[in-house]
């Protein structure tokens, strides 16, 4: 018999506003909350929140969690992660629950379970500004700066390049020269459009453009580099992997999302790997519930000298799995110092 018991239950979290993506409109984030309990009563929590185009389907995720449950029921503790290895959201949840349990048992915050010598109070975060009108974009960016954010990421690519250039220009005028601006095109442009945007963004001191071209265009991304604005790959990391990106010299930075990578442990290995090649890792979420979001904060805290990361995403949800233990103030996430994840009451909520 196993010393552990794995349970899971489904959830559906409505978004505050529908999200338009390349795979369609998302109105809710649906997934599974996972609880692993050890025979001595110790508990760890995980979250599997599949995302179309990024992870396995919701049905495949549930089937994978069933396999993990069966593995533990049969006493195969070593095989529980192998049972979910091909299904990244499921693996994320199981590996997170096991790590939360282990860190709680050692009475250390989760980030110190991954980086024992670290003692981190805060990690820098960016504000995300949606793809609205010029007036809406300026107001949102100004509001973020007033709340203490020193880095704003603007969503672009759903209108003409000239319109996006004007939006960025007006935001720069509104927030001044000291605020870092980034843009995220989600692969919306062709090369000529991306080149025009990058050259114009350089004039506005935009630090970085995320996924300006579709994920497959490694050579195009390589050609966009060196023009004053750094190039970051998001979907491109999952499609090509680190080796291909480095060989093509296609990125200055990569966006590291623990859910589609299959867990915090995998994401940590990826960040270490890309940093060895001089590529900057940027930790962010996939609009997850509080369990996965808090895990991403701990991941960022376990890594040295990260720039602002995309972790302030909880307000994109209209409801959540439980109380958020992460406080955001002055452009930073205050890292929970309680044992494990620091997330409480989610199973009872």
TrEMBL record:
Residues 134-231 form the Mandelate racemase/muconate lactonizing enzyme C-terminal domain. It comes from the Archaea. Keywords: Lyase, Magnesium, Menaquinone biosynthesis, Metal-binding. The active site is at residues 155, 257. GO terms for molecular function: magnesium ion binding; O-succinylbenzoate synthase activity. Its cofactor is a divalent metal cation. SUPFAM superfamilies: Enolase C-terminal domain-like, Enolase N-terminal domain-like. Mg(2+) binds at residues 184, 210, 234. HAMAP family: MenC_1. Converts 2-succinyl-6-hydroxy-2,4-cyclohexadiene-1-carboxylate (SHCHC) to 2-succinylbenzoate (OSB). This is o-succinylbenzoate synthase. The gene is menC.
